[in-house]
Specification:
The protein is built from 4 helices and 24 strands. By secondary structure, the chain is α+β, with helices and mostly antiparallel strands. It is 29% helix and 32% strand. The longest helix is centred in the first third of the chain and has 32 residues. The N terminus is likely disordered. β1 and β2 form a beta hairpin. The strands form 5 sheets. Strands 1, 2, 4, 19, 20, 21, 22 and 23 form an 8-stranded antiparallel β-sheet that branches.
């Protein structure tokens, strides 16, 4: 019995060993065969040569350098109200809003009533005017009596002159008080009614008050919205953010084109009015103000737009901006001298834009430059140079060792 058990146990062990061997054989038969690696590009002189059919060549898209031409330069911009035709109205006296006569979108003329306030402070100004008028009439009567007394020889001349001076001062106070109340639309009577009216011809573009609202003159200035904003939208200002290198193109009177997202394909024309004399330290841009016609009222204030100007280059060639790389501190491009052969070329830029660059020296029209994946090629060139230098160093070391071992 023990002998039979021993035979069964030996058979099981043999079967397991056979199974392991079979599985191992299957694993070896299913192992992937490593594909042969493609030959690496090599450096010869200042050229990087790829073997024919190298897969990386499909990534290196080339493009011919074109003769220089007018380059469109696009700058971010924003439409704002024409401040020369815009009025912002703030309260001159404290008071309460009793009536509102105008709303957003309403056309107005000079003197059109916008709102009315009940203002005790303005009533005080009206009372000052009325009091000044009464004092002036009283002084005028006093002057008349003094003249009669002077004619009768009862008073001295200096008393008459003093009375005439007092009457002149009273008349000047009347003129001052009347001018103050007239400036804010005050009538001859004391009614404490302050009228807010338009000072320009245009449209109500903003309203920031409600019936019964309490107003104070100290609620005005930067950061506080005005009660009304009136503007003539037939023309708008364009705030352009120009780069330092573009300031020479945006002189006063220079034309530019304007495009907005709301009207694809529609080009508006404008001209430069002024440019600031300092650079914004936050954005490193120069603020340029332009003017665009808006007689059809299609453009709206606070629209984001793109201003386009054109710069002419009589010399040089144009290539895509993606073709330019840096070699240390110098700009460079990779030129394809023949299929699969590339060489770096130092260049001098005349203009560098986001899409195109103008090269003044180092490249001729018609030469093929790597327009896509130029950085990949620059890295490959650097790696190939290091490999070439390493092989040369190893060969020199071997030669030195052989010479040292020679008898």
């Amino acid at each position: 019995m023990r002998s039979l058990f021993t035979l069964q146990r030996s058979a099981q062990i043999s079967l397991c060993a056979l199974t392991v061997l079979v599985l191992a054989g299957c694993g070896e038969s299913q192992a992937p065969i490593a594909a042969p690696q493609a030959a690496q590009p090599i450096v010869q002189g200042q050229q990087l040569r790829f073997p024919s059919g190298h897969p990386q060549l499909a990534l290196l898209v080339t493009q011919a350098a074109q003769p220089a031409r007018d380059i469109p330069i696009e700058l971010p911009s924003r439409l704002v109200w024409n401040e020369e035709r815009t009025q912002r109205i703030y309260p001159a006296f404290a008071g309460r809003v009793t009536a509102i006569s105008a709303d957003v979108g309403q056309p107005v003329k000079v003197g059109t009533p916008l709102a009315r306030l009940a203002s005790p402070d303005f009533g005080q100004a009206q009372a000052d005017t009325a009091r000044a008028q009464v004092d002036a009439r009283l002084m005028q009567q006093a002057v008349q009596r003094q003249r009669e007394l002077f004619g009768a020889g009862i008073i001295a001349r200096k008393d008459l002159e003093q009375s005439e001076a007092d009457a002149a001062r009273a008349q000047a106070e009347v003129a001052r008080a009347q001018a103050r109340t007239a400036l804010y639309g005050g009538a001859g009577q004391v009614n404490q009614q302050l009228a807010l009216s338009s000072g320009i011809q245009g449209v109500v573009v903003e309203r920031n008050l409600n019936p019964g609202q309490e107003l104070r003159p100290d609620q005005s200035g930067p950061g506080v919205p005005p009660l009304f904003v009136l503007s003539d939208p037939s023309s708008l200002w364009v705030q352009i953010d120009a780069r330092e290198i573009d300031t020479g193109l945006l002189r006063t009177g220079a034309p530019f084109e304007l495009e907005v997202a709301a009207y694809p394909g529609v080009v508006f024309t404008g001209k430069v009015l002024a440019a600031s004399d300092f650079i914004d330290p936050a954005t490193r841009t120069i603020k340029v103000r332009g003017l665009v016609n808006n007689s059809d009222r299609r453009l709206k204030a606070e629209m984001l737009a793109t201003a386009r100007i054109r710069q002419s280059f009589p010399k040089g060639v144009v290539v895509p901006a993606t073709a330019v790389t840096l070699r240390g501190t110098r700009h460079a491009v990779f030129v394809q001298t023949q299929p699969g052969v590339f060489e770096p070329r130092d260049i001098t830029l005349a203009y560098q834009g986001p899409k195109e660059v103008v090269i003044s020296q180092g490249l001729q029209a018609g030469e093929q430059v790597v327009a896509e994946n130029a950085l990949l090629l620059a890295r490959q060139f650097h790696v190939a140079q290091e490999d070439s230098m390493g092989r040369a160093s190893d060969a020199a070391n071997k030669a030195g060792n052989k010479k040292a071992d020679a008898p």
